[in-house]
């Protein structure tokens, strides 16, 4: 638990000074809170003296008390205000800083980074996880650090008059800290179990909902209900068992504190009995015994949350360890867009997927890459766009090694049409304009017309000013695709990479999409991962991939003459394209 | 206020199945509170003995023992209470989840499918989870944390009503800064939530769209937008913090200082001879004891809002309408499908209709294709036959019986519905196929898989047929999953086969194999195809052309090509796309069209 607090202290970094100053304020504010109790004990002592020995009470006593307490309240307000001012917003400031840092990292990494790091993980780190830290970190520091500051202050108070009683209280606090450690350990142990039970339940729920249509249409309700119910049952049992694991520690924690309370009173009374302690101090001890541990008592809740912040900090630290692929890159202006691969090998981890591959693509020609799935077609494109760096050999664009470029300056030369049809939750105009900020209205409409989207855009409620739903929600797949083509058209990059497989997301509008592409690729260097015979037949050059190698290379007519992968490929495609039912 | 009662009532109704345990839990919580009250009396006795000067070691030990046992009772019963509360809470969650699942099973498939899976899942898992804290903590803890201060205050009032009043004096004083702070709370809170939602959506866009951002060299400007919104959210939050610091801290400094009035009033009462010193000591202790639990109780107020939403979301699913179902198996005569004057709208209002007065006959063993521009309602026709929804007007019948009079299970046996959504369950591939006919032998399963062209890729997997679908899921392509789903339908061997989107073939790499598997599935069946590629349905016995929810024309391909302008247009577009090529000139497309 204390380690987790330490971790938060490390996380706040430059704000540490403010945090510690806040703790100092907290220290004083606790003294102010303890003040009225001491005042009450002192007054009570006067009253008892008065009752027993007739020592007269000062007449102004009620007013002295009232003013004293009001003064203490104001002081307490002052210190707690400053504590909050110094501490409370640190979480927010630090979280904002870290969000911006991560955003900056994302800006600089190559796209290959996102293949290795799940986008969902990055997103949850930026939103939920940093929110947890933002909202909880200072509360936890406050609960634990200031909680202990408070108890130490009161123990000091007691200790000034009756050291043995203070010792009893201290022992109680130490024993309870031991029980709290038990809670943390238990939490560290059960949190993953509970997390897994929750994941299982989510999985079962998704399977159940997703599978509803299947089980219903096959009349097999039993199968999926059973699995879902057993996940629910397991979840229930695991959670109850987990909860039971905490109960003894929680009881111990509370019981140690309670025993210490009684011990405090007993030892003070003992001392008073022996004449070593004046009555007012006994009264003070008695009054304190009910409030002294209040702040430590609720630390048991903090122990749970701290195990959460701990794992969040762990995941954030992992995200931080990113290397930037484009370190040392520069802006390279190009006047020629020939592409060449020279003895290129590449492996994902240990598995080599591209073996010693060489080819040359002259600018303004069309190249089709064909081959069975998994043969390395997309990897070639990823190497050209430098999502990854090659292990051996050289990839060049315009006779410059792609490693000379920064990611940005390389991508300026390349349009990837079907890589991602993500649209921003912004107007249609701004989405298209994204390809060329500052484009004129005429340019935007011309691009939209060429990409065959002008017509359906005009049919939208606000035309070009219609806001697209998140991720392009309100448009059909084909419409989104055509907008993304319009965007690529505005960008007007000299090299275009297309993946034809994704071109068929919307078979109803296939025709329109294809016309849009035709308009895009005019007079450019085009590299297509091709499946359609018509496309392949038109290509200036065909690269046939199999198992990470180029096995055949040439034009359609040349390759048809050779026996090999290509002939078989063409045969299958011919059958598939002429297919009809019944 | 009325709404609030609503959700608390609903919450209590959720708790009904564990009424006994919950009651005992609250009872134990009260015993625990009572135990916590004992030490006040014990310490009071010790102080009284000191004041009366009749203190003895035995007396001291005796009362310390009483205090300790009081605390022991408090802690032990608190533990029992929370344990019981947790057992009941998790039992109730379990019950609720199953109940919701049950509802989903019996609601119409159309209604269920119209909700995003993510939303349904989050209600079943996360929202219902949100009900746990109120059940497990609020009912026992809130009741005891409210009860203890009430008992203590009551005790103070019985000791001396003036002291009772004095102990509550800080409450109205503290309320003043509180009221000032809360005046703008609601609007500030709403603003904060809006700012939070806004920054989150910008973060989501920045991260999810980052590939596009980079591909278009907009990293810097998008990053600026992102960083700007993060900063402005931070500033907003800080503003809000700043606005609350003064009032909140003043309130929290005043509220717990109950001695503020208790001490001076106590002195005055002593001076007027109305209060003995020992009694005064007790009053002071009690006044201090009021604070802790009350502060704890206020922390529950903050979570009320999210609980309210959780309870209401769950309620909504539980109240979902069930699809009425026939009890007795119907006697079907063949598998003719007849739609008679069918109209349908999702809302039940005819003016918002998706289909209008559709009359359609599909005879046993024939092949019907539905074509039309997107959004014309062709998928809806298919879904009404499988009874995803009930028609708004008219009737759908199979084998001469209205589908509403056929039990869902029997209907399911008649119709195989194949879509792009090829869901595999978390069991082996073999069992996934066997789902089509649970009594099937291994041989039958293998035969179906062979017919669906699955054998080749299944043999490639390390554990073959026994590969769990989850593991295989990562290795299988969309087309391979589709073939498993088709194998399942082949095994089921129902007389009617509906192909919706199944012929769209988004997996170009495996197109040929999927085609063969669909041929195997549809052989000799009453076949209804929602056509996306017209060339696949050239040989249909009847092609039905739909537009805006109405049938425009029907007939065989040749007839339609000669007389139906809409069909001609669709056909030309299709043929155009088939012969289209990257890099080809537009003239080329024109040529192709001419040659048709």
Automatic annotation (TrEMBL), chain A:
Asked if the keyword Ribonucleoprotein belongs to this entry, the reply reads no
Q: What Gene Ontology terms describe where this protein resides (cellular component)?
A: plasma membrane
Domain named ABC transporter: which ranges? 339-572
Protein name, as recorded: ABC transporter ATP-binding protein/permease
Xref: SMART domains: AAA
Record keywords: ATP-binding, Membrane, Nucleotide-binding, Transmembrane, Transmembrane helix, Transport
Superkingdom of this protein's organism: Bacteria
Keyword Transmembrane among UniProt keywords: yes
Location comes to:
Cell membrane
Its record classes its membrane topology as: Multi-pass membrane protein
Transmembrane regions listed in the UniProt entry: 20-48, 60-79, 143-161
PANTHER family named among the record's database cross-references: ABC TRANSPORTER, ATP-BINDING TRANSMEMBRANE PROTEIN, ATP-BINDING CASSETTE SUB-FAMILY B
Q: One Pfam family from the UniProt entry?
A: ABC_membrane
Which taxonomic lineage is given here? Answer: Bacteria, Bacillati, Bacillota, Clostridia, Lachnospirales
The record places domain ABC transmembrane type-1 at 26-306
What is the scientific name of the source organism? Lientehia hominis
GO MF entries? ABC-type transporter activity; ATP binding; ATP hydrolysis activity; ATPase-coupled lipid transmembrane transporter activity
UniProtKB/TrEMBL annotation, chain B:
ABC transmembrane type-1 domain: residues covered: 24-306
- Give the SUPFAM superfamilies listed for this entry: ABC transporter transmembrane region, P-loop containing nucleoside triphosphate hydrolases
**What PROSITE patterns does this protein map onto?**
ABC_TM1F, ABC_TRANSPORTER_1, ABC_TRANSPORTER_2
The record's GO CC annotations read:
plasma membrane
Bilayer-crossing regions:
26-51, 71-93, 165-185, 250-270, 276-295
ABC transporter domain location: 337-573
Q: Which PANTHER family match?
A: ATP-BINDING CASSETTE SUB-FAMILY B MEMBER 10, MITOCHONDRIAL, ATP-DEPENDENT PERMEASE MDL1, MITOCHONDRIAL
The name this protein goes by in its record: ABC transporter ATP-binding protein/permease
Tell me the superkingdom of the source.
Bacteria
Q: Where in the cell is it found?
A: Cell membrane
Please provide the record's keywords in A-Z order.
Answer: ATP-binding, Cell membrane, Membrane, Nucleotide-binding, Transmembrane, Transmembrane helix, Transport
GO molecular function term, any single one: ABC-type oligopeptide transporter activity
Per UniProt, what is the membrane topology?
Multi-pass membrane protein
Pfam family name, one: ABC_membrane
